Structures
1.
Amino acid sequence: MARAALRGRLMAAMPWRRAVVLARRPETATAATLLLHVDGGGSSVAGQRVEVRLTAEDGYSADREYSLARTGDADRAEITVQAIEGGEVSPFLVDEIEVGSELALRGPIGGWFVWRPEQTEPVLLVAGGSGIVPLMAMVRARRAADSRAPFRLVYSVRSRAELFYRSELRAPDPGVDVTTVYTREAPEGSRRPAGRLTVADVNTGGWPPDFAPTCYVCGPTGFVETVADILVALGHDPRRVRTERFGPTGDG
């Protein structure tokens, strides 16, 4: 309760800023990336998120939080949104919002689930579905900073059709190793049959515990809890396992 109250006070102190949609780019059939120009925007760190507010003509408003997909430009914000079936906000952002539309934004939010360029230790990223978004921001921040910190990404997704950032993740990126695990439908010729992420997947695609990597895990609550348990069982220091989770709200 105390933590929730503190967060509420901190959020209330953050100003809402005007944001304008500069571009909307499809990622999958049900997800899109929005590039926003933000008035008076400030710096952000890979792994942080922002709160977005949409307001209807009758004054009704709805707020949702989304992870930043990219950091760097102070007056720009980039988010990737997965449409939730029956949702109130996400389907509109994915399918209907037009370039030039205005919304309100505040943030960035968060200081624990972040990666900074001064970090030099190995990094393990484990993503479940749209949990790839803040982890992709970390991959991009590493590249922009010309960091030599070695990254490994294990990306669990239902099928190839649901991959975010497909072409970018397929492009060679020295120092970033990507392992994709398909849980429902594996591509033809895949050596691994479709199935849920396993201990073997995390062990093979990740770093040995004695390398002392910092591990970032993001995805649905059940996925995050399972992966965190796997990492600890494999011998990773729980203090070096950072998690960010989300769950269905029914009104996303």
2.
Amino acid sequence: MSTWFTRRRPAVELPRLSPRAQRAPAVRIDLHEVMPDLLPYLGQAAYIQLEQFRTLSRVAAEVSDLPAAERVAGAAGHALSKHQGIAAEIRRRGDDPAAAMRPFADEIEGFGAVLVGADWRETLLAALVAGGLLDDFFIRLAAGLPGDIGPRVAQLLGSDSGQEGMLSVLRDEIEQDPKLASRLAMWGRRLVGDTLLVARSALHLSGNRITDEERIEPIFTELIAAHTRRMDALGLTA
């Protein structure tokens, strides 16, 4: 089945960030205006974590250095734990996790194919970039969920994701091969647009491009700022 990940996609215009020393105060928006319904939110979030687990498991199988493979496998385990936690929230509502995730299968599996790089290092960076952006995004949206489920989901998604382990593996690889840095920086920049498309697909937007951009720009500005910090931690340009 063809999805918009397998077709030529329009360029994604990313929010422009102010210089770090001059960053404006965060703008608060009413998340209820753009929030998806609860079950689709949970289904998409659960499938994203499952796809993250699959991606990291494949990387762990390709890494020959045992300590590095162990750190990547640990990150895969964290993604699986998050998936299981969100699935438990779906069951708590009396719904079936598989049925809740099924509408997002083509989209997210297509996105998973986009994350496969030329080697395991690129794929690991893709998991770091996409996982970080999407965790941040779904944590941000959790504030608009009804009742006490929002704090539970936010705490779950904000728990240890193994990012420090992934960062350390990539730092070691860059130290051993400094030329790798420029390739990874370029690859990381390519991934951001596709990842933000997945995030946007979760929102209920009006179809009015100007109004929608004004409403969601603060969310995406925060996401890009956090992404920039992760790339900084690797010594790469976001």
3.
Amino acid sequence: MIRVLLAEDQAMVRGALAALLGMEADIEVAGVAADGEEAWRELQRLQPDLLVTDIEMPGLGGLDLAARIARHELPVKVVIVTTFARAGFLRRALDAGVRGYLLKDAPPERLAEALRTVHRGGRAIDPELALEAWTEADPLNERERQVLRLAGEGLSSTRIAERLGLSHGTVRNYLSEAIGKLGAANRVEAHRIARQRGLL
């Protein structure tokens, strides 16, 4: 029996996924969570085989949750089920140790099969998205991504420099590089473009 924890902030989607998986003879929905922090607590309490989670949830998102699981070396495997059909999100998910990445508009039977594949130690990635991620380069390096993410939170260059232990001039250079690479007019637009492409 494959024991699954579902983490999804939309109640209707959460209920539909639970009902769908409940029809499978070899899959048990051990628990559900409405946000990332609740999922984290339930993971430790229930110790399921798999976590099925969305990317964006209140507080702790699915990618941050996956990264926390990897840092703490929990034995649970993570499968993302999301509407975000963007190569940037897939790359970040794989970097966080995610084993499966499916889109919510995929055929229902694909989810159960993906969970079985991941449970056996394999990967289950939406094939079209995998091809896009393979062919589309990520223009930002990790430092540019950090600086742009903080700029998007409204921090000034001085505050970003303090937060990251960098000089003010270095932060301005990173922001300038990110703006140029994304073809943006300013840091606000660069942050918006990067978010849309799943790069942050």
4.
Amino acid sequence: MSSPFPGTPQPPAAPALVIRRLHKHYGAHRALDGVDLTAGRGEVYGLLGPNGAGKTTLMKALLGLQRPTSGDIEIFGRAVGRESLSEVGALIEVPGLWPALTGDETLRVHARLRCVPEGWIDPALRLVGMTGARTRKVGTYSLGMRWRLGIAVALLARPRLLVLDEPTNGLDPVGIREMRGIIRSLAGEGVTVLIASHQLAEVAQVCDRVQVLVAGRTRYEGSLAGLAADGDVEAGFFRLLEASDAGVR
């Protein structure tokens, strides 16, 4: 699999992300209750589940923003830490950008903050299709363009794993289609993309495999075809939720 950035060494042969028996407890509340996850290199992996299922908690633990109660997280074969997190880019919310700056100026600021060469700006812009808008003020960008620029910021350090929380929230149909194309093109270039979403239809169109979380527990992991009931992914998803609800009563 080719590198998305010329001259960048390939990662080790280990999976991009491995999570084993991950727990996060807040007193008696178990936000994560023994979650396992394995995402391969160049894979688009979706985290599905209703609000409060534990998707964002898992992502924060992965990014070192929350300390798990127990469990292991490995990124390209290494435990979460400064070295392994250097392989990760993330966009958890709508990016906070400076409206008065151009896209190019925004990326130059972030390049300095991250101590990366300004020569890495152009490849990041090309990957998200923003080269033509680099000299425009961010204040003139649509929401979809802001998301693109936010992903370019996340890609500046040339990560091998990209973490996106609800990447299509607030986007119009054109923006959703653009975001889908960006995600698939990144995967095609060897970047692993982890997406958290509650929008089943969008995940179904972009992800290679999914995991369904309910109340902090894994209820399904595998292909979308395996999740479907009589060929209907949505029906299978809701059947799974109903079965999970019945099991906790």
